[in-house]
Structures are given as structure tokens and as C-alpha cells.
Amino acid sequence: MDIDVIKSLELMGMGMAAIFFVIIVIYAAVNLMLKWTSEK
Amino acid sequence: MEFLTNGITQVTWQQILMWIIGGTLIYLAIAKELEPALLLPMGFGAILVNIPSSGVLNQTLQGIGEVQGIIDWLFEVGIEASEMMPLLLFIGIGAMIDFGPLLSNPRLLLFGAAAQFGIFATVTVATLLGFSLTDAAAIGIIGAADGPTSILVSQVLKSNFIGPIAVAAYSYMALVPIIQPFAIKICTTEKDRKIRMKYNPKSVSRMTRLLFPIVVTLIAGLVAPASISLVGFLMFGNLIRECGVLRSLSETAQKDLVNLITLLLGLTISASMKAEYFVTKETLLIMVLGLLAFVFDTIAGALFAKFLNLFLKEKINPMVGAAGISAFPMSSRVIQKMGLEADSQNHLLMHAVGANVSGQIASVIAGGVIIGLVPALLL
């Protein structure tokens, strides 16, 4: 298989993992913010 | 008197084709109202730069030397040197976005991430078609469904195809109401589309709205530093909006700044629409790949929602997952319309808006991730 195709698959794996990681951290942070700053 | 006929004798068929393409973009902008703020300047610019010895481009004049043309200069200063124009546009976009629907239902964030899959799937297809990894990555970013991100990433990666990529990104964003229903129907059943979702938003305090842009900037910056210019400018715009003490600046960013930059960006991008670079078979391939990217994004978002439904008691309508692309607000409107078509009482708008603004965050993160990863993979 062409080297660029293999690298594109690597990019897919690492890229999606990185995006999900950042989004999940943001998700956790938003939940914490909602909990800490909720108006009672 | 020969100089009077030079322009006519020097014109090539490729330049005439570019006039037709420019005219088509102007037609789509005016008659069909497809992204008119961008397609009209791009269309006119395509005509300007494809006139033989055009004065808007750099010229070497006999006995005088090089003379700078305005569009080449705008491109060098506004895009090539620092990506200033797309980045400034993000301040305005950030000021326009209300993250409220997302913050009140934060799990919608996940759909923004899932719907970026189209970018990477398209990169792979592009490499299979023979594009280099850098060009393939620049083409794949059309799937971010975000014009400024596409322009910025293709410029940073020094792609030879900035013009076709920008045209594809903006054209397909305008065509979301046609592309998304087709893609959604491929991967969902009538029963899926009828799933109703309760809307029980959590209350969002002002403090959360203020902290959100700062926290997102810090997280994205620490994990994916290459994304910080994109994410940072988007979130800076949002902070101006939410702080409540810069109302006039927020309005300026949302209206005047966005209008001015959009106007100049459209003309500037036309520098990359010179016939010798644009009239190639690669341009046609890029248009097809761009369409594929939008289809892959939509399918990935919908399938991700179906996957989550395997574990959830309260099911998510898969169409909400498809709204995780960045094309805001077109995608949300499409999902609301399709929801009502499936069931006249099925109101999905607020869920779709949440997923859609999540797509705006995820698409700029995706842009930064690609800028960070591609050079590392080339080593």
C-alpha cells in the first residue's frame, strides 16, 4: 500500500483520538462548571 | 496601436472558462442566494485575476520592473503571511455564537467530535486517488464545513489547491439543505427519524458562560497547541459577546468586522483562482472529494448517535448526531425540518443547535490537530 495512504490512516486514528480526547475533557469541565456555578 | 488588442489576442480558453466559472459563482450568489457574501466576491475576483496581464496581480513592466497588484498583495499580507483574514473572521463568528443550547445539554459536545470523521475519511480517499498527504489533508478539511478553517489549514500546509478548496467548502456549506437529507436517509430508517427527544435544559449561569471560552481555550491549547490560534480567536469573540460590558465591540465584531473581512477574503482568495492553477483535473476531483467529506461527516454523526443509543435509555434521534457538522445554522434547520417531516410533533431544533455549535468547536480543533499532526507524519 502507498506510504501516503498508510500515513492517512495513521492521521485518521490519531486525529479522531485527539479530537475526542479534547472534547471529552471539555465535556467534563463543562459539567464541573455547571455543578459549581449552579444558581440555587 | 498594437497594445489595444494585446488583451484580446493573449486571452486563453482556460481564462475564458474561469470567466464562466466566475459568472456561475455570481449567478449562484445572486439568483440562488448561496453564500452570497463569499461567492459573489470570489466570482468577481475569478474574473479579475483571469484577464491577461491583469493589473490586480503582480506584473513585471518593461523598463520599470515589478509592480505590485492589489489582489496578490492582499493574499500575501492577509493570508500567506499570518492567516490574518480567516483568523479575524473567527472573532466575529465567536461573537455570533450562543453556546447556551450546548452548555445546557453538554453531552451534545460528543456529536461535534464524531462528525469530524468525514475529514479523515476524505484524506484517505484523496491519498488513494494519488494526492500527497499534505494536499489530501488540505482537501479533507473541506469536511470541517467551515470556510475559514479550510482556507487556513490549506494555506498552512502550503497546498497548491487553496482556490478549489475554498470554492468547494463554501459551495457545499450552502448546499447543506440538499446534501444532508440525502446522506441522512442513506443511514437512518423512518423509525430512527421519528425518535422524539425531551428538552430539559440545565440552567446555565452567567459564570459558566464567561468561563466556557477561557476553559476551552486552555484545554485545546494544552492538548492541541496547533489549534490555539483557531480556537483562541473563536473563543475570544465569544468572550466579548458574553462578558456583557463590551456590547458595542461585540456588535462590531458580529456585523462590521465579519462583513469587512468576508468581503476582502472573497476577493483575496481569487488570487488562487488563476486559470493555470484552477483549470485542472485535480479541481474536479477536489469538488467530488469535498462533497464526499460532507456526506461522510453526516453519516458518521448519525451512526455515532445510533451507537450511543445501544447504551442509552432515553434514545437520541440520529439526525441530531448529523447536526454535529460546523455548518451553522443550516444544519440545525435541516434537522428540524426533517424531524417535522417524520413526525409533525417532533421538534429537534434546540438539540440540533447544540450539536451544531459543538461542531463549530470540534471543527476548529480538527483544523489545529491536522496542522499539528501532518508535519509530524511527514518526518
Helix content of chain B: over 70%
Mean pLDDT of chain A: 91
What characteristic shape of chain B results from the CA principal axes? globular
Largest sheet composition of chain A? none
Q: How many strands appear in the DSSP assignment of chain B?
A: 2
Q: How many distinct beta strands of chain A?
A: 0
Uncertain segments of chain A: none
Strand content of chain B: under 5%
Secondary-structure element sequence of chain A? H
**Beta-strand content estimate of chain A:** under 5%
Note the overall shape of chain A: rod-shaped
Structural class of chain B: mainly alpha
Instruction: Show the largest interface.
Output: A-B, 30 and 47 residues
- Determine the number of helices of chain B (DSSP H or I, runs of at least 4 residues): 21
The helical percent of chain A reads over 70%
Determine the number of helices of chain A (DSSP H or I, runs of at least 4 residues).
Answer: 1
Distance between the termini of chain A: 60 Å
Question: How many strands, what sense, and barrel or not for the largest sheet of chain B?
Answer: 2 strands, antiparallel
